[in-house]
Design goal:
The protein has 79 residues and is mainly β. It has one domain.
């Protein structure tokens, strides 16, 4: 733990993010990113002093296959 002084009240952290989204138009979005955070201690507790979002990888290639349920909806009903 840092000694007394200004550094005692500042910390850093990272959060790793993996996001995937499938759009209504059948497109998709996949990305891996990192939040680089700095926190500062206040009388109310630890607060964000700075947050930087760094994208490491992006892929917008449409996924193969069909959406769940779409095959069932396009088949004729059983009699």
């Amino acid at each position: 733990m840092p000694g007394p002084g200004p550094r005692r009240w500042v910390r850093a952290g990272r959060t790793y993010v993996a996001e995937f989204g499938r759009m209504r138009d059948c497109g998709s979005h996949l990305n891996y990113s990192v939040y680089h955070d700095r926190y500062r201690r206040t009388s109310d507790g630890w607060k964000f002093a700075e947050r930087v979002y760094e994208v490491e990888y992006v892929d917008t290639t449409p996924p193969a296959g069909s959406a769940r349920g779409s095959e069932r909806e396009s088949r004729p009903a059983r009699t």
